[in-house]
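assembly run, all chains below
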Amino acid sequence: KAGVTQTPRYLIKTRGQQVTLSCSPISGHRSVSWYQQTPGQGLQFLFEYFSETQRNKGNFPGRFSGRQFSNSRSEMNVSTLELGDSALYLCASSFPSGTRTNTGELFFGEGSRLTVL
Amino acid sequence: DQQVKQNSPSLSVQEGRISILNCDYTNSMFDYFLWYKKYPAEGPTFLISISSIKDKNEDGRFTVFLNKSAKHLSLHIVPSQPGDSAVYFCAASTWRGNKLVFGAGTILRVKS
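ok done. output:
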């Protein structure tokens, strides 16, 4: 089956701009999570969405936001970009937390690499 | 506050030998642990997991060991192959939740 699809794969923005990233989960997966990966920091959890509702949120400023649509597709938005927002943004899909079908395994997309100049 | 730590940024191993990647955690509420592998320009892929009720889980060449009292887990790869060269991330969660806490990763290089 098709994997997690993220668009765009690469983008360059300047400070102060805003960006929207898109994620299409694996068919049948209703939970979508977002992570930020920066060198030396590993993957940092941004937020998780299920049934169009944010279920969990990481320690990121309010400039980072997201949403989920009725077809489980998700978008994340970063406003007023800063140089430190340059990172690989990874989307992952899975079955919802706590469900019998959830093994705790997340299926990741290839990521959207954002460069802020 | 790094709740999951991978203290070795990199590891180099000869092909055919054992690779041992280590991970420490501080949050005693974690009860599910996973290892992911990541190649450049690809997303992380799931490798193996272990629940806190076990101390060992094996899948082919990969074995994960969990020492709850020491809050330590390790991934053993035997025998190591050049294709295993990648970044390995340790991750932890509570009750198979989807909020995973990741370590910073260890770069494994398997030399042929």
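Chain A is about 0% helix and 50% strand.

The mean pLDDT of chain A is 91.

not gonna interpret more than that til we talk
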